[in-house]
Design a protein that fits this description.
Length: 140
């Protein structure tokens, strides 16, 4: 779902782990009003992941082990085949984004903490919540 216009301004300055109201996500009938959402992560326009342990909203070069932003694998070519190794203690320097949402953030990952009156399937797929007639089981 898209967040645009004035609704996007509500997310600026929020950190990973903060709760937000669902009415700012989506537009019109597709808004998640009544839902309570928690920010779990995101990425910027180049695909850099946001890490919850980095302060601020800028890009930082950090030395990390396997986790958010780095899978911890090393690819080696031997005899025209590619092998994947996962060494203990393998660390790499990666450019990652801080935990605060800024103008450069292009994707925000949210999870539902409290649900609203309408079902998510009805909001996202546009299904009507009208009662469907059930067959009575009697034949004429």
């Amino acid at each position: 779902m898209d967040i645009s216009g004035a609704n996007y301004n509500h997310f600026l300055g929020k950190k990973i782990g903060d709760s937000v109201d669902g009415m700012f996500v989506g537009e019109g009938d597709k808004s998640l009003s009544g839902y309570k959402l928690e920010i779990t992560g995101g990425s910027d326009l180049t695909g850099r992941a946001m890490r919850p342990d980095l302060d601020g909203s800028g890009v930082k070069s950090v030395l990390i082990t396997a986790g958010v932003g780095y899978k911890g694998k090393k690819y080696v070519n031997k005899n025209s085949k590619e092998y994947r190794y996962k060494y203990d203690g393998l660390r790499r320097r990666r450019n990652l984004r801080g935990s605060v949402i800024s103008q450069d953030t292009r994707q925000i990952n949210l999870k539902v903490v409290e649900s609203g009156n309408r079902a998510l399937a009805a909001i996202i797929d546009g299904e009507e919540e009208a009662a469907v007639e059930q067959p009575s089981g009697e034949e004429e």
